[in-house]
Amino acid sequence: MKKIIIPKTVPRSKHREYLKNFKIATQGTGKMMMFAGDQRVEHLNDDFVGPGIPKEVADPKHFFEIAKEAHIGVFATQVGLMSRYSDICPKIPLIVKVNSKTNLVETSVRDPFSNRWLSMEDIIEFKKNSGLNIVGVGYTVYIGSAFEADSFGQAARICYKAHQEGLITVLWMYPRGKTIKNESDIHLLAGAAGVGLCVGADFIKINYPYKLHSKKTAEKYKEVVTAAGRSGVICVGGHKKDDKGFLEMLHSQINVSGTKGCAVGRNIYQRPVDQAIRMADAISAVTLHGYSVKDAYQILKGKKKLKAKKC
Length: 311
Hints:
This protein is α/β, with parallel strands linked by helices. The protein has helices spanning 15-25, 39-42, 61-69, 79-85, 120-130, 148-164, 186-199, 215-220, 222-228, 243-257, 266-269, 273-289, 293-300; strands at 32-36, 74-77, 94-97, 134-143, 168-175, 203-206, 232-236, 261-264.
């Protein structure tokens, strides 16, 4: 891993804590494999019950049974789920999702705004009292929304306060609102990445134009990575996709576009726990450990094991 440049918002007394949390979150690689588990609010029950979705996925403990055995970097979810289920995997590195909203109010009705649920003081207290391995916080910003100024203010304050405690920060940066014509436009995504850098993110979770994926698309996506500067871009996984195709796109994002990882939810958890664990391992193999798509696919199929220590 390259030398970590510590933001000046981290006081000297917290440098060691920040470095520790950064190394844990990236498994010492400088890249992040985030297992995303905030969809119970964002998508309500749509991702957990329905055609082709195994029955076990409906139980919230499914998240934690996967996280317990899989080689993931961090698991991101809300405080309530952490507080109720983290006994299943008490040592797993966690990102607290500070805000979330449902998808019931469509953008055509009202521009999106996802208000903060808890203050940083609340989260710091929760970390201290719970003893959980909380390494950072996450927050969603909708650029282009009529409420973006409020989001920027909350996000900046959260990033600043998190750094003051030596925690890392991840911003979900989504172009969304009535004025946004194409949420996956690469030039617009680059603008969103630049905003995430300015607000103070260590990592920026952002869309990738999967429907247009090609080597040329991966090359063009370098604009997003460049705009993010010293903040690492991690691409969203999105809807469940063809397994090998998804691994190929992930490999291109990292090795062609230059992203610093991924944030994957449905492509992992919308399957039986044993398959979900293998898929998470395959994603980590590509993201964190430089495996080829061929070898990662063998891990998914259970024909190989990921040779890496669990955090």
